[in-house]
Amino acid sequence: MTDSQQRPLAVFDLDNTLADTEHRQHFLTERPRNWDAFFAAAPHDPPLTEGVALALDSSRECDIVYLTGRPERCRRDTLDWLAAHGLPEGPVHMRGNADRRPARHTKLEILRRLAREREIRVLVDDDALVCDDAEAAGFTVVRARWTGRSTVLEDAQEREGRT
Fold first, then answer.
1. pLDDT score recorded for residue 162
2. How many helices (H) and strands (E) does the chain have?
3. Burial of 31 (0-12, 13-18, 19+ CB in 10 A)
4. CA triplet 102, 132, 32: central angle to 5 degrees?
5. Domains and CATH numbers, the chain
6. How many Cα neighbours within 13 Å face the side chain of 110?
7. Would you call 47 helix, strand, or coil by DSSP?
8. What is the mean pLDDT of residues 48-54?
9. pLDDT tens across 15-47, in order?
10. Which of 56, 84, 121, 135 is the most exposed place for a label (fewest CB within 10 A)?
11. pLDDT recorded at residue 41
12. What is the DSSP track for 64-77?
């Protein structure tokens, strides 16, 4: 049961929602994919104006939660990136370093867990499969369509469960 005394949550994805990953996607076209280099380049992601503005606006009425497919080993870089770009403070939910399940499964599991205790006002994510599953589960979704569609990133999110 949710606590109606607390502010609702606005849940934001990171990659291609708040952070522009285009400059590092070439690491995912290599065979084998160079995941270490892909994640090592994340601190250099430019912020996505539309996503950052939506997070700042949402923070007026909601507590912000970050839900990413990035592995736990990227936590320090992720927290530093969020702070450097003036994003609201909030818990960051990351996948375990060995978790290779598709993002749509890991994220929906976390959303459901969060929803047991707090109202989730909105999920903002660029991954169509995550958005489809969240909507089917009854969550309100804003599809982050402010970057170009990336088949390389989509494949990584769904098939390899890496981001």
1. 54
2. 6, 5
3. exposed
4. 30
5. 9-160 (3.40.50.1000)
6. 24
7. strand
8. 98
9. 999 999 999 999 998 888 898 999 999 999 999
10. 84
11. 97
12. EEEEEEEEGGGHHH
